[in-house]
Specification:
By secondary structure, this protein is mostly beta strands. It has 1 helix and 20 strands. Strands 1, 2, 3, 4, 5, 6, 7 and 8 form an 8-stranded antiparallel β-sheet that branches. Strands 19-18-17-16-20 form a 5-stranded antiparallel β-sheet, with no helix packed on it.
Length: 264
């Protein structure tokens, strides 16, 4: 009788250990990696539900906990899968909505992969406005050129090479500076929007005595052609591209003498 009781206790112990091991997450990720934690993601084991050759469809039980002190209305994440050699072999998508502080939600996540995944990484694609500082900085690739070519290029005061030059620039406002011996130096204001994509180009015509000079109130000096001016705006041409400036942006202008256009 005593032996039978010990056997039951031991069997119960093994069952408890088995359940605990099954419930232990395969991987846990706290987002963001730095600063105050906002979300905790826990992923279970990958379950292969379908396969064709090396292409597999997986599901995993996903648990998300809101560690923030505010309700998260909506946050979307890309989920990347890696094999044992840290090669990215697949991806999925996670969306968290209406999650109150300290609330936990659990759901199944589906993923596609060309191989066997062993680890996961998360990348935010959209988060509440107050958490935008945790988003990765978006950059795009553009080609910066000058007329003539061979000008020294600076981006926001930092040397970036000689034109033509392919560069990566983050979203936001920037200033491109051009300088070449025998030509006036010039600055070109450039703004990269959140929806801009790689592949564009900027061309700047180096200033000489045939161009006007516009000094802005923020200290930038533009070598350009002033096309028109009104009580509210100034229209200029920089490298053949027209730009409209608010009149209050302009501190002073130096206009060169030009021959009037021929009359018909």
């Amino acid at each position: 009788m005593q032996k039978s009781r010990y056997s039951c206790v031991f069997a119960l112990f093994l069952l408890t250990c088995s359940l605990a091991a099954r419930e232990q997450p395969q991987q846990e990720i706290v987002w963001p990696k730095e600063g105050a934690p906002v979300l905790r993601f826990s992923f279970g084991k990958f379950k292969d539900i379908a396969s064709f050759g090396r292409q597999h469809s997986y599901t995993t039980e996903t648990t998300v906990e809101n560690l923030w002190n505010k309700k998260i209305a909506l946050a979307n994440f890309s989920l990347y899968l890696f094999d044992k050699n840290k090669v990215r072999i697949g991806e999925g998508f996670i969306s968290v909505s209406n999650l109150a502080p300290k609330e936990i939600t659990r759901f199944q996540t589906s993923m596609e992969a060309s191989g066997v995944p062993v680890s996961i990484e998360l990348a935010p694609t959209s988060v509440p406005a107050e958490l935008q500082s945790n988003m990765p900085v978006k950059t795009i690739s553009i080609t910066v050129n000058s007329v003539p070519q061979g000008a020294d290029l600076k981006i926001d005061g930092n040397p970036a090479g000689t034109t033509p030059k392919a560069v990566r620039i983050a979203t936001g406002k920037h200033v491109l500076e051009f300088s070449k011996q025998g030509f006036n130096t010039g600055k070109f204001p450039l703004e990269i929007g959140p929806d801009d994509v790689s592949g564009g180009s900027v061309s700047y015509e180096l200033g000489n005595s045939a161009h006007d000079t516009v000094e802005l109130r923020d200290g930038n000096v533009l070598t350009c052609d002033v096309e028109s001016m009104s009580a509210t705006e100034v229209v200029i041409s920089v490298g053949g591209t027209k730009q409209r400036l608010d009149r209050n942006q302009v501190k002073r202008m130096l206009l060169v003498e030009r021959d009037p256009p021929p009359s018909n």
